[in-house]
């Protein structure tokens, strides 16, 4: 295995040089906020800020608290008037979920294939609008419209009394047929 060029980070920086990593993450976050401000001014005000993150569920809770939480809070707090969406379809422990609630996001696009709606609602309540509900690798991708309708009704029952942006969690795969997508929408509209 080759070493990274001098002056760059390696996968073990998280462990052997956390101070340097903290500085790098702060600089990247400041850059992202400034870049989003440029877009905000050019478009007449950001209506939505979406952070697609795949790190949160891959680090320990202690690492999340130290390295990720302050930067997510800085980014989301920079846009208080926008709808703030957090996207991470990984499996989150209860400790991770508690910190996700502190990020400052309004909406969480979660992995419907790894988290059940009822379980998430019991942990996040209505502090976040959940975005998902249908398994992207299940009926939507491989099933029939009737199976998609059944899964959609089940998701809507689980969300009763809560806010939900019905979708597949993580995204819709290219194999999902138009008929299956229509079945989800028609079932939701009929409720």
Q: Strand arrangement, largest sheet?
A: 1-2-3-4-5
Query: For the record, what CATH class applies?
Result: Alpha Beta
Q: Counting H and I runs of at least 4 residues, what is the number of helices?
A: 8
Q: In the CATH classification, which architecture applies?
A: Alpha-Beta Barrel
Report helical residue fraction: 40-55%
Mean pLDDT: 91
Note down, in words, how this protein is organized.
- By secondary structure, this protein is an alpha/beta fold.
- The chain has one domain (47-190): Alpha-Beta Barrel (TIM Barrel).
- It has helices at residues 13-16, 18-43, 61-77, 94-100, 117-124, 139-142, 145-158, 178-190; strands at 48-52, 83-88, 107-110, 129-134, 164-168.
- A five-stranded parallel beta sheet has the order 1-2-3-4-5.
- The model has no long low-confidence stretch (mean pLDDT 91).
List keywords for this structure.
single chain, 191 residues, alpha/beta, 5 strands, five-stranded parallel beta sheet, TIM Barrel
